[in-house]
């Protein structure tokens, strides 16, 4: 450290001497040099400054040669720098950079641990072991009568929508929805959570199990099916599954005027030969896919 400090001091002195040289050259011959021999006096002054710069530079070189930087010791990996192939010659420098980066990560993580431990993320200053958390209900394990009750209430609430429950696999339900004379949909439930939706036209059928996974032959209902998947993810709620299903069914019910209502943004009924296939998740207003 003493050699390093002396080297820094020598650099400061050298910079000051060089600054004096340029300042003298910029000022040129001054009045203090007198009337006789002014050029000779100016050259002598400049020569003294250059000699001082040369001496300072020699001192700095001698101090810098005495400095011995401590290399990183990465064990046998130092032999990688002696590889003859060009592809492996850069491995050692990359390892050194990785070592420095990981070292900084350790340092920053220790500082973060100290800061976070000083500021506890707790709601209160008291720890109570007597409190018991209420067990969360799982939307996967719901009895079939409870699912039927939720779907029947939705069927009675929403007009122009017919809901029929079918259970080919004992507990899990497949719900057939007929929305007026516009479309048909099949919902695959697991408990009270919707896992899959298939939307088809009113003239298409769901006669077999395989029809649940085949898309509609009409492009407009394939678009609607993609939007229903987005709505299914939006309304999903593991803590309030019945409310999530009711909200999603209300959103689906807004498609009862799929071919009647114009787009709220452009005001057109058709865009690229398609009606507004998107419904806003809050206001239920119709929009084209390009206008939403």
Distance between the termini: 66 Å
**Class inferred from helices and paired strands:** alpha+beta
**Multimeric state of these chains?**
single chain
**Share of helix, binned:** 40-55%
The string of secondary-structure elements, in order, is HHHHHEEEEHHEE
- Please indicate the percent range of residues in DSSP E strands (runs of 2 or more): 5-15%
Count of separate DSSP helical elements: 7
Q: Largest sheet, if any?
A: 4 strands, antiparallel
Mean pLDDT across the residues is: 82
**Arrangement of strands in the largest sheet:** 1-2-3-4
Gross morphology is elongated
> Count the strands?
6
pLDDT < 50 stretches: none
The gyration radius over C-alpha positions equals 40 Å
Describe the overall structure.
This protein has 7 helices and 6 strands, in the order H-H-H-H-H-E-E-E-E-H-H-E-E. The protein has 292 residues and is an alpha+beta fold. The strands form 2 sheets. A 4-stranded antiparallel beta sheet has the order 1-2-3-4. Strands 5-6 form a two-stranded antiparallel sheet. The longest helix is centred in the first third of the chain and has 29 residues, at 38-66. The model has no long low-confidence stretch (mean pLDDT 82).
Secondary structure elements and their pairing?
Blueprint: H1 2-27, H2 38-66, H3 86-89, H4 91-118, H5 144-157, E1 161-169, E2 172-179, E3 183-190, E4 193-201, H6 219-234, H7 241-253, E5 278-279, E6 286-287
Antiparallel strand pairs: 1-2, 2-3, 3-4, 5-6
Structure characteristics:
two-stranded antiparallel sheet; alpha+beta; single chain; 292 residues; elongated; 7 helices
């Amino acid at each position: 450290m003493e050699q390093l400090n002396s080297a820094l001091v020598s650099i400061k002195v050298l910079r000051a001497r060089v600054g004096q040289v340029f300042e003298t050259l910029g000022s040129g011959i001054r009045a203090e040099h007198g009337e006789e021999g002014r050029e000779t006096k100016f050259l002598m002054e400049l020569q003294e400054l250059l000699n001082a710069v040369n001496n300072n530079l020699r001192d700095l070189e001698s101090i810098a040669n005495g400095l011995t930087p401590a290399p990183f010791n990465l064990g046998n990996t130092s032999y990688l720098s002696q590889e003859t192939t060009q592809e492996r010659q850069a491995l050692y420098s990359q390892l050194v950079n990785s070592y420095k980066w990981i070292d900084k990560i350790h340092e920053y993580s220790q500082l973060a641990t100290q800061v976070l431990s000083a500021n506890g993320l707790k709601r209160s200053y008291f720890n109570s072991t007597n409190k018991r958390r209420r067990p969360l209900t799982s939307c996967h394990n719901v009895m079939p009568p409870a699912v039927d009750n939720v779907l029947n209430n939705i069927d009675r609430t929403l007009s122009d929508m017919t809901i029929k429950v079918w259970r080919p696999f004992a507990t899990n339900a497949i719900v057939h929805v007929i929305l007026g004379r516009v479309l048909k949909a099949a919902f695959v439930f697991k408990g009270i959570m919707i896992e899959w939706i298939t939307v088809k036209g009113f003239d298409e059928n769901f006669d077999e199990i395989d029809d649940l996974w085949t898309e509609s032959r009409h492009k407009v209902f394939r678009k609607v099916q993609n939007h229903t998947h987005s709505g299914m993810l939006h309304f999903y709620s593991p803590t309030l599954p019945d409310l999530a299903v009711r909200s999603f069914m209300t959103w689906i019910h807004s498609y009862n005027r799929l071919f009647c209502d114009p787009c709220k943004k452009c005001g057109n009924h058709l865009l690229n030969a398609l009606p507004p296939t998107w419904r806003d998740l809050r206001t239920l207003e119709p929009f084209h896919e390009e206008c939403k």
